[in-house]
Amino acid sequence: MKLDRIPNDELIIGGIYSIHARNFSVGVYDGQGMIGVREKFGAVYLFTEYMKEMPGEEFRPFGTAFAYKQLTDFVLPEEMVNENNPCLLPLLDACQSLAAEKRCIISVIRRAGFGLVENNTEDEDLKRREPYMLTKKVIS
Known about the structure:
The structure is a single chain. Helices cover 19% and strands 33% of the residues. By secondary structure, it is of the alpha+beta class. The chain has one domain. The strands form two sheets. It has a five-stranded antiparallel sheet with strand order 4-3-2-1-5, covered by helices on one side. Strands 6-7 form a two-stranded antiparallel ribbon.
């Protein structure tokens, strides 16, 4: 089965997509590639798979990913989209599991209790770099 690629210039930074890549099948677009959850030698971490081509380029021989379906209209704020944001790991892990089961991503994100909140840390540098946090609401 041939997958229809979404042209890279139509991808939305912060959008969550089904992708074809070496290491995972769901990623969030960061402007250069797709960030997703990778497992290697028992370690689970965020990793970027770079796009096969970028606007103005025909083909990147080192690129390993392309998007073929946007999973939800839910778009993460651009400042949250980086592989050093630990909040992305549980979100993308859940999205990957749900996409494999062909379930609705956004309803499960909400049901799982994920939300976007303002970063109220006292660390001003961190607050400036990451003004929002993805959080999991605690249900008691």
